Amino acid sequence: MSNAQNVMQLESLLPYLSASRRKFANDLIGFWRRERKLTRGRADWVGILIAEAKVYQYREGQLPANHPIPEVPETMRAFEEQKALNAKRTAEATVDLGVDLTGLQKLFAGARANGKTNPKIKMALANGTVLEVYAAKSDSKNPGSIYVNVGPEYTGKVTPDGKFIPYADRRLDDEALSMICEVVENPTQAGRLYGRKLKWCIFCGTQLDTNESQYYGYGPICAEKWGLEWGNSVERKAEDRQATLEGVVDDVFDKMLATAPRFPNANQVHTPSDQLDLDLPSGSDGD
Ligand SMILES: [Zn+2]
Fold it and tell me: What is the largest CA-CA distance in the chain?
């Protein structure tokens, strides 16, 4: 068959090609229309794509009963073998970590529902290695999965159904796993604990710069997006005032001890000048 006939046939078979193959076929057809000629390589590809489309047609039962079984082209065989191999590897690699990480998926889903487009948690192991847990982008290869990085290394992913699939032969560190579990179990508590320790908000990675966010371990925006506790600052201020008062009282006693007149002679008569002259710090009576 001539190139012209082959190109026409390929055009009629476009619906039987996958999206990426169809794009490739359209490029070849476009080239033919512009140039009215095909290089040997392009002509071969037109033939290969026709053969691939015929196999799809055959599998879909769309070829006449007496049509000879089309031969599966090498390109298609290689592609299908790779696909089967990937599926097998994924099935084999799925490990049971003994914990249910669907809670992590729920936590991320909640953040997303509150307008956090790409939820991410950033913590650090005891030795300072950064631990990052972040949602795969919706247009990525694994939409719905959550990736886990330990340091610069991609360790694996949590699937939408809460299973962990390590990357290649990597394993998720026990410390990292238990930290992830802490966040899942009680995000408010973990956010506070790690935020205060690391001096950054684990839900957005920014430095904690206000007194309030340093107290909570995260800021009001993250509190809202991740559904964390916020706003019991009245209680907190009472707590802080109590601490301040205790500090003032301690100072006063220190001063008293330092300036208290000694009484070397028990028989000495007390006079008004012996009275303690306390120099109270101004404003010490509370605000
Ligand atoms: Zn934050």
Answer: 131
